[in-house]
């Protein structure tokens, strides 16, 4: 793809590259496994990813062919829908409107992993509240506690009904239930309690701002103790929580817990893998992983708790900026284990796998190089022949050539960032709250300077393009007196000053040495355009520091071109046949003005909103060719053609376009003075 097309997409749509977000919550040593089975066919809507089938939650197996659900079933007087193994199903029947718990399911049933059918349903009193359950737990019998645990699970099954008060009460209830379970080993209570905790994590983030965080903290500590129970290799898994215990039968040094990917982010029993060593697992199939290395062999208990989000661990001092999920892992050991433990985990900050550009395409290099030569010759020609056309046109054209030449040179030698940051996982030996959940790089190298210069000289080019158009408009308006005497001074001040003001505001409001990506991008030395979620943001300097000013100038230049074309194409009945300008010359005049006004960039905005693939490709090629060779076009129209017209012996059949008016003639390229001011004879000439 042409580099100028890349530049367009950088400046307008920020879509020239795909950025893959990397969630660095594990740096476990995963060796790439290139052994894939190309003959694998994923069944039951499974998706093939790097040779591995990612299954829906209700299917499992290498090809997603093994059922992982209980089919819908009528049990007693209740109806339960299809449900994933190991999870609770809520009854279709709801509490009546006149009850306290109106709309809450009347019953729930656990989908048994062994029988693939529902266990006996648990029911709830539609007038029962969490406050009542919390009060009734003290002094309750084991059977009553089991019923209260089931009722708590049902009352918290609808996330939208969870208030801060309900979440706090449910946390206190489950903490009491699990604390008792550590003594009684009642797995039914533990399953209902863990299911309740999983449901609490479904509540909206706003609900947790007013929750009693002490109750949540105590609950998480109880879950850690639960993971250290003596039951060998026991596993409690619900969609948002997994509690894994490992009683080491023989002394070992390495323990590895891995959660594999599926089409959903929920935890499932068959996706939780526990190994007592660094087992080789498909890297692309790992969702998260943690390794524990003991300095000496041990046969004690190791426990893990996995949380599918960080609702229980929101910091008051740290507010996340990324719209991403943050899973939380807890690894625990018994207090009497007196060995040093090393956790192989990475910092909690997120980073981008940056896609750095390759070298410029030869089309871009050739087009830009030719444009630099053409613009240099045009500027020199305009200066040498300035007496034949007056000061204002020469001033404008020369400044356009200078600013565009510098821009092309900066683009050729400075668009790519010479400093590449490679995303390498690092071990963190500190337990501190990070300043941000997005990894920051301090400014290095010349990329920021190139970005500022590119922004300035590209804005400078379009500013002088616009001033050239304003000069043409003033000539039409004041056809007798010409351009006002004050215009050159104002043009110099606006032409060089306005872009400097915009660049200064952009740098001053968004650039920091510690975080340069507020102003520029990482892969390319150009203005930042997207937020941390990789979505185009009007708050970024790309929009208000370039796209918006450029759009306003292009609209102005388009209006000037339309006005110019209308004026020169309108036929004056007072002119005789010999005084009328040919259609070819009128079209060439309009084309010359369009080139000088930079209207080829309009194709960029059209390309930005185009969705059809073939049309997008055609427009990208057109944009690339037009903008890499804009300097060549200016050279042909504003240097070569006037020179040839003034030397007919070289090419006597090539005539430059001329614009005829009722009382005065204006010429795009002037090589001689009209024979008479009262004549309407068409003559080749230069622009005013």
Automatic annotation (TrEMBL):
Presence of the UniProt keyword Transmembrane helix in the record: yes
Keywords, comma-separated and alphabetical: Membrane, Signal, Transmembrane, Transmembrane helix
Mode of membrane association: Multi-pass membrane protein
Residues spanning the signal sequence: 1-22
Keyword tRNA-binding among UniProt keywords: no
Cell compartment(s), UniProt: Membrane
Stretches assigned to the G-protein coupled receptors family 2 profile domain: 360-642
Database matches in PROSITE patterns: G_PROTEIN_RECEP_F2_4
An individual GO BP term: cell surface receptor signaling pathway
GO cellular component, one term: membrane
Principal subcellular localisation of the protein: membrane
Highest taxon of the lineage: Eukaryota
Molecular function as annotated in GO: G protein-coupled receptor activity
Regions crossing the membrane: 359-384, 396-415, 453-474, 486-507, 543-566, 587-611, 617-640
InterPro entries listed in its UniProt record: ADGR_G7, GPCR_2-like_7TM, GPCR_2_secretin-like, GPR128_GAIN_subdom_A, GPR128_GAIN_subdom_B, GPR128_N
The protein, known as: Adhesion G protein-coupled receptor G7
């Amino acid at each position: 793809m042409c580099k100028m097309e890349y530049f367009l997409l950088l400046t307008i749509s920020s879509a020239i590259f795909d950025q893959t977000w990397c969630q660095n919550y594990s740096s476990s040593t995963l060796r790439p496994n290139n052994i894939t089975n190309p003959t694998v066919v994923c069944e039951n809507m499974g998706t093939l990813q790097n040779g591995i089938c990612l299954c829906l939650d209700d299917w499992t197996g290498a090809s997603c062919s093994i059922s992982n659900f209980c089919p819908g079933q009528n049990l007693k007087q209740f109806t339960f829908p299809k449900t994933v193994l190991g999870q609770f199903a809520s009854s279709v029947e709801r509490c009546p409107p006149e009850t306290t718990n109106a709309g809450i399911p009347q019953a729930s049933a656990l989908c048994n992993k062994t029988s693939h059918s529902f266990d006996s349903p648990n029911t709830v009193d539609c007038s029962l509240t969490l406050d009542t359950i919390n009060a009734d737990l003290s002094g309750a019998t084991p059977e009553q506690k089991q019923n209260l645990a089931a009722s708590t699970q049902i009352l918290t099954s609808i996330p939208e009904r969870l208030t801060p008060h309900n979440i706090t009460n449910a946390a206190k209830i489950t903490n009491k239930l699990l604390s008792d379970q550590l003594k009684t080993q009642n797995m039914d209570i533990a399953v209902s309690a863990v299911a309740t905790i999983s449901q609490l994590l479904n509540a909206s983030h706003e609900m947790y701002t007013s929750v009693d965080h002490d109750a949540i903290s105590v609950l998480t500590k109880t879950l850690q103790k639960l993971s250290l129970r003596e039951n060998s290799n026991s596993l409690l898994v619900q969609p948002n929580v997994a509690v894994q215990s490992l009683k080491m039968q023989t002394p070992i040094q390495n323990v590895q817990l891995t959660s594999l990917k599926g089409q959903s982010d929920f935890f499932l029993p068959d996706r939780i893998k526990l190994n007592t060593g660094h087992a080789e697992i498909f890297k692309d199939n790992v969702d998260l992983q943690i390794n524990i290395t003991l300095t000496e062999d041990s046969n004690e208990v190791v426990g893990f708790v996995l949380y599918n989000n960080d609702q229980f661990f929101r910091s008051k001092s740290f507010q996340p900026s990324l719209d991403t999920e943050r899973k939380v892992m807890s690894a625990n050991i018994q207090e009497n284990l007196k060995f040093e433990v090393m956790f192989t985990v990475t910092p909690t900050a997120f980073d981008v796998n940056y896609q750095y550009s390759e070298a410029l395409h030869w089309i871009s290099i050739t087009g830009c190089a030719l444009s630099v030569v053409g613009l240099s010759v045009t500027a020199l020609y305009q200066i040498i022949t300035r007496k034949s056309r007056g000061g204002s046109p020469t001033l404008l054209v020369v400044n356009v050539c200078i600013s565009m030449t510098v821009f092309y040179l900066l683009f050729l030698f400075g668009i790519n960032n010479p400093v590449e940051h490679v995303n390498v996982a690092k071990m963190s030996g500190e337990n501190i709250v990070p300043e941000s959940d997005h990894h920051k790089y301090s400014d290095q190298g010349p990329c920021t300077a190139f970005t500022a210069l590119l922004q300035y000289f590209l804005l400078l080019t379009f500013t002088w393009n616009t001033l050239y158009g304003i000069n043409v408009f003033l000539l039409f308006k004041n056809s007798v007196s010409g351009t006002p005497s004050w215009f050159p001074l104002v043009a110099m001040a606006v032409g060089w000053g306005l872009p400097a003001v915009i660049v200064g505001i952009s740098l001053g409001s968004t650039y920091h040495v510690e975080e340069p990506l507020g102003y520029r991008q990482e892969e390319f030395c150009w203005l930042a355009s997207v937020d941390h979620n990789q979505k185009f943001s009007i708050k970024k300097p790309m929009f208000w520091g370039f796209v918006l000013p450029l759009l306003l100038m292009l609209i102005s230049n388009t209006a000037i071109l339309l006005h110019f074309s209308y004026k020169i194409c309108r036929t004056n009945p007072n002119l005789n046949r010999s005084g009328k300008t040919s259609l070819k010359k009128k079209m060439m005049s309009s084309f010359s003005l369009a080139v000088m006004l930079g209207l080829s960039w309009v194709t960029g905005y059209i390309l930005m909103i185009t969705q059809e693939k073939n049309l997008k490709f055609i427009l990208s090629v057109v944009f690339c060719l037009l903008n890499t060779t804009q300097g060549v076009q200016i050279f042909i129209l504003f240097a070569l053609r006037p020179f040839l017209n003034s030397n007919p012996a070289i090419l006597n059949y090539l005539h430059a376009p001329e614009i005829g008016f009722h009382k005065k003639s204006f010429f795009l390229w002037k090589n001689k003075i009209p024979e008479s001011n009262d004549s309407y004879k068409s003559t080749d000439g230069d622009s005013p």
